[in-house]
């Protein structure tokens, strides 16, 4: 009696997915799941690398059709000009609809008060939550990843927010076998994180594989910076430098992009994707831990903001 032939699928098998293929497939599935479950989804798009990868995945998920979601950017007024120019170019190139919620407009209207330190990232919550309510968005895609920060490490892919956009870890649902529960009551919405299982290195390797264009600040360039709280911040009209802080011209790049008031540059000579990937692979600090002043306001700064409705 002859036994049935056994087919062994090794790493060279055409049926074997690479690590990046598996992550891409998962994210595409999440985009399509949201399109099927929700009525008014929106993608948070700042022009940073994670939101750029997220938009690239959305374009793939629905090609050759158009992406069935609009974009939302919460503009602090202190964003890097290079990133805003990139954002506008991408929106025009793909014929997308962009909603902009302006922190400056809220300050001018007296709804928000400027912080003494000039940092505006914590002020994004009110414009974000009111934009969600105004446009009745029921699913909001974000580029958060679990490797970034401890509060994001316990976030679900489908993260339920109440009628005030607040996050309660105790109300989050299990997500066994990649089954996502999008049910929500009227007034509630779900934050969706397609890149939850990606790492910073995964993101950069995927950018290299897909040849995705990025704003120039992600690569080494000469910039006028000053040191504050151990970080190199960009000099600008937002309020730096002050007192004894002095401006230097250094060769730097940015690992993450918030706004100029709270995002630190890192010394780097990495001018290519391969050089950046090599640099990230050798790093022992997370991108937010090394470069974000807004995460250092307290031990639970990110979790406190998420409970209030932050990204």
TrEMBL record:
It is an enzyme of class 2 (transferase). Residues 41-264 form the Phosphoadenosine phosphosulphate reductase domain. One of its GO terms (molecular function) is sulfate adenylyltransferase (ATP) activity. The keyword Ribosomal protein does not apply. GO terms for biological process: sulfate assimilation. Pfam families: PAPS_reduct (PF01507). Keywords: ATP-binding, Nucleotide-binding, Nucleotidyltransferase, Transferase. It comes from the Bacteria. Residues 288-311 are annotated as: Disordered. Its EC number is 2.7.7.4. Belongs to the PAPS reductase family. CysD subfamily. This is Sulfate adenylyltransferase subunit 2. The lineage of its organism: Bacteria, Bacillati, Actinomycetota, Actinomycetes, Kitasatosporales. The gene is cysD.
């Amino acid at each position: 009696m002859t036994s049935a032939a056994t087919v062994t699928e090794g790493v060279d098998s055409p049926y074997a997915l690479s690590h990046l293929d598996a992550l891409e497939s998962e994210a595409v599935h999440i985009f399509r799941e949201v399109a099927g479950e929700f009525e008014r989804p929106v993608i948070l798009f700042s022009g940073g690398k994670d939101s750029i990868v997220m938009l690239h995945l959305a374009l793939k998920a629905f090609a050759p059709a158009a992406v069935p979601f609009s974009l939302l950017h919460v503009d602090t007024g202190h964003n890097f000009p290079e990133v805003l120019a990139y954002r506008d170019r991408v929106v025009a190139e793909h014929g997308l609809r962009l909603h902009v919620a302006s922190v400056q407009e809220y300050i001018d209207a007296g709804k928000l008060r400027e912080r003494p330190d000039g940092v505006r990232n914590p002020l994004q919550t009110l414009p974000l939550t009111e934009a969600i309510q105004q446009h009745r968005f029921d699913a909001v895609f974000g580029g958060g990843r679990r490797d970034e920060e401890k509060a994001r490490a316990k976030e679900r892919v489908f993260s339920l927010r109440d009628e005030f956009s607040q996050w309660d870890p105790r109300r989050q649902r299990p997500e066994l076998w990649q089954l996502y529960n999008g049910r929500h009551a009227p007034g509630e919405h779900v934050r969706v994180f397609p890149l939850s299982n990606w790492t910073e290195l995964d993101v950069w390797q995927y950018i290299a594989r897909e040849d995705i264009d990025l704003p120039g600040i992600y690569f080494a360039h000469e910039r006028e910076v000053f040191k504050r709280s151990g970080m190199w911040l960009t000099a600008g009209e937002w309020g730096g430098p002050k007192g004894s802080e002095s401006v230097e011209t250094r060769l730097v790049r940015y690992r993450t992009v918030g706004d100029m008031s709270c995002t630190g540059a890192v010394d780097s000579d990495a001018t290519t994707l391969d050089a950046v990937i090599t640099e990230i692979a050798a790093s022992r600090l997370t991108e937010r831990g090394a470069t974000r002043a807004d995460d250092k306001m307290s031990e639970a700064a990110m979790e406190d903001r998420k409970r209030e409705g932050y990204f």
